Protein 1
Amino acid sequence: MDTLSKTLNQNVKIMKSRVTKYAIYGTLIAFIAIILATLLSCYVQYGEISLSNILETQKNNATLWILDVMPFVFAFWGQYTSSIMAYEASTMIMDQTADLKDLTVALEYKAAHEATHDAITALPNRLLLMDRLEQAIQSALRQKASLAFLILDIDGFKEINDTLGHYSGDRLLKQIVTRLQGMVRKSETLARVGADEFAILMQIESNNENILHIVKKIQKIFKNPFSIDSLSLEVQASTGIAIFPEHGKDMDTIVQRANIALSVAKQDSKKYTVYSKQLDKNSPHRLTMMGELRQAIENDELVLYFQPQINLHTRKVIGVEALVRWEHPEHGFMAPDEFIPMAERTGLIKPLSIWVLNHALSQAEKWHAQNIKLNIAINLSPVTYLDTELPNLIIGMLSLYNVPPNFITFEITESSMIKDPSLAMEIMNRLTENGIKISIDDFGTGYSSLAYLKNLPVSEVKIDKSFVTDMLKNDNDNVIVQSIIDLGHNLSLKVVAEGVEDKETAITLKKMGCDILQGYYISRPVCNDDLLIWLPKKRDKKIVK
Ligand code: C2E
Ligand code: CA
Ligand code: CA
């Protein structure tokens, strides 16, 4: 600013020191006026213009003296006006330059803020977090202090976003952030590091109690539901925790280990996991598993198992539930709970569901060709179920395989319906229009509104196995099972009990009026070859008298 004002003042000085065109014009006009006035006065006074007459006129005429001063007046006036103008112009330029400088500083600040902060939540982003982590590590090294690095992942956020829309998703994020901000201190960093991932960096006294305290604080935040418009959303988060210097002495190791802990927490459906060396055994496997699952789908490393269902009234096997397994070349036989939740999170669930549909329908076609009239129940994950392409995809597949649609049941969980009831209803209608049946799986574990269950084109409810397995020991479970049976029947639905592990439970369920049984007592899920061996022998077992 100083140099600028110096330059401008200098310009004004130059203006003052130079003859400006206004001064020249003024002076010229004044000279012309003097000449003309002198000539005219000379002629009027002496009747003739000559040098001696002109000199006499100039000497005697006082009015001309005033006129003679004019060139100096004009010269001064011209110079003065120009200086004033130059000065005003320079102050104007100085003001504008100052404004521009302020604007540039503001823009630079904004650009720096945008580069280091998240636009939706205004929280520090990964870049700034890494910078702070590096600094925190340096200062913790000097002070011999410990740091906790937490990565928090919102469970099922993608589904919320997909079903409620991005606008509502963003609003939910903001609400989560507000609660998290209430939890962190000024000296701690809360950052957004992914679409539904947050990180918290804090200095701690390194002991288990302390870490547990942090975890409890996080859990408290998610205890009350969030509200978006009139919807009340129960949201949970999984947290992976790594401690400096215990779990790593540099930034990259700490971040990687917190991520390993998070992926273990997610996969084991735990609220939180603190990193430990044992996790490493699994983590490379866990981290590469998704790539392998993609390959497994393409290379047909998946297998369908079938678990029979018995009609309690006719005592006949009426159908099977198709349950997928993965024959992993290194890790052996893997149950769906080990890979389906991860497939749902990564989007691999779609190709997986298509694989299951193709194989289940192809198998059903073969049974029908052999006159084995088995109903086949296929599980649809909430993610797949709420995919609007699904009805067309299924209808297209049905035309590929020669299976009557009334021999196909789709099992969907209550959560599929809660997320977007109108879409769920629309998809359900499209499927049932084509003769397919719908069963509500794991019934009793969600929050189904009984009112809308009445309006859904559902043909059966499956009582969740957690109620069935313990119903003889636990009175509450017993009451729940009876209530579901009664409710189902009042709504003209068939009631299936799954997880029947012993004869006593089977007999009790029959007495309670249950329609269909499924469980280890009848048969474990088996491969097609074993099913074909089991089917003719099933009567020998006198399943339920
Ligand atoms: P689900 O749909 O509730 O399936 C029933 C689960 O209970 C099966 O476990 C079955 O093996 C098990 N089960 C059956 N009878 C008994 C019993 O008497 N006692 C006990 N304790 N358990 C019994 P599985 O095969 O491990 O499947 C677990 C879950 O994985 C399934 O739960 C389902 O949600 C999911 N799943 C399985 N196959 C598929 C699939 O093809 N697609 C999708 N989206 N999900 C699948
Ligand atoms: Ca099921
Ligand atoms: Ca179930």
Note: The chain has a mean pLDDT of 86.
Protein 2
Amino acid sequence: MENTFVIDNPMITDRLTVLRMKKTGTRKFREIVKEIATFLAYEVAREFPMREITIETPLCKSKQKKLDVGEISIVPILRAGVGMIEGFTTVYPDTRIINVGVQRDPVTHKPVEYYHKMPASIKNSKCIIIDPMLATGGSIAYTIELLKNEGCEDIVVVAILAAPEGLQAIHKQYPKVPIYCAAVDDHLNEDKYIIPGLGDAGDRIFGTEE
Ligand code: PRP
Ligand code: URA
């Protein structure tokens, strides 16, 4: 799908397979979410603009490249997005973290907001929304809308797993917002869980499964 980038790398896919396994415990799950987030964070930067500068190596003057991006804000969707923060701050250490608390209603599956705090200057930032799961796309679409209402124009979405239904919904509503993910799964079940998926990402990251 246009503007969707599936990062197909054996080192990610191998970890994702372990993430999907029911027997994978909380400690390992958290570790892998962080690792995959780090890989994805590097991939997002692939299209970042660069500028040329002249430097001096110990041997000579040389024209080399430096990043030419302004402020970057990481926007994790609570709770599960928290698991990806460390991977992103490893790659983008000089970033602000703008938390957005959104939870799916268990019956309607629609996003319900319980927290957000955004400084007015966010509108000038490149905003990278992070959430391991893009299922119906409702939570991410809600967060995109929040950012747009603040005047943000440069928005990127990063998920670990996505469902085709959610990708289509977001793309239809926000065709200019690029979406990066590690895999696109088959479908959503009647409870709007991703199949085959990995279960409830928030519960598995925080160890709150029943
Ligand atoms: C999960 C996940 C996403 C959302 C995806 O969060 O982390 O935010 O569901 O579903 P959607 O694409 O259909 O909106 P959840 O609402 O379970 O909250 P949690 O992170 O607090 O567990
Ligand atoms: N949220 C999750 O954590 N998992 C899913 O499969 C769908 C939404």
Note: The chain has one domain: 4-206.
